[in-house]
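Q: what does this look like with erythose-4-phosphate bound?
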Amino acid sequence: MRFFIDTAEVSEVRTADELGLVDGVTTNPSLVASSGREYRDVVAELDEFVDGPISVEVIATEAEEMLVEAREYDTWGDDIAVKFPMTREGMTALSQATAEGIDSNVTLVFSANQALLAAKNGATFVSPFLGRLDDIGSDGVELVREIREIYDVHGFDTEILAASIRHPSHVKAVAKVGADVATLPPSVLDQLFDHPKTDEGLAAFLDDWGDRESPAVRELQGADDD
Ligand code: E4P
């Protein structure tokens, strides 16, 4: 399963990239607005080092205007996925974008039937919003499982991009039900590392080792002395 980073803060993507864990980035209008930067500048900077798709979302609500945006955003980087909302206008624009070879990500997906529509129109990615479904007492992970089943039964290539992830349990759950990608807020990626037994175990190893040098350092010092 690939990890995308769900942020418009370039420094956060760099930090995750240094960990070797960035397969792409997702942005949305809210994230870019809170960064206080121009959308194009954020994407240009990400495009310099991100090895994978960068999702850029249309702002328009009419299909023709969405397509104007999509064609422009598609020039902003080597691997752009244009985000279209799951609306009738969004699906009209998606159909044409697919015909033009523009990669896409259908966003604000809350039902299996919506995911079916996105796949039928050739979406590259579909983004079910787990956290927002959980917020209203529904089951976001179950939605991912249903979409996986439908796509597998019918052989759709559209990749399932689990979005609106709020905590590490979501990551494990969508990995188990077969999401192709999870887009993680940097804070959730950070939480995936943590386990008190890891900290406790490492502290004990280092305590037992005491103030001896590392064997590698000793080897290097020996080589220097020769
Ligand atoms: C990603 O593509 C989505 O825009 C994002 O995951 C939404 O997350 P939120 O529901 O926490 O805003």
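The pocket of erythose-4-phosphate is lined by residues 6, 26, 28, 55, 107, 127, 129, 131-132, 163-164, 183 (CB under 6 Å). Residues 130 and 136 are 10 Å apart (CA to CA).
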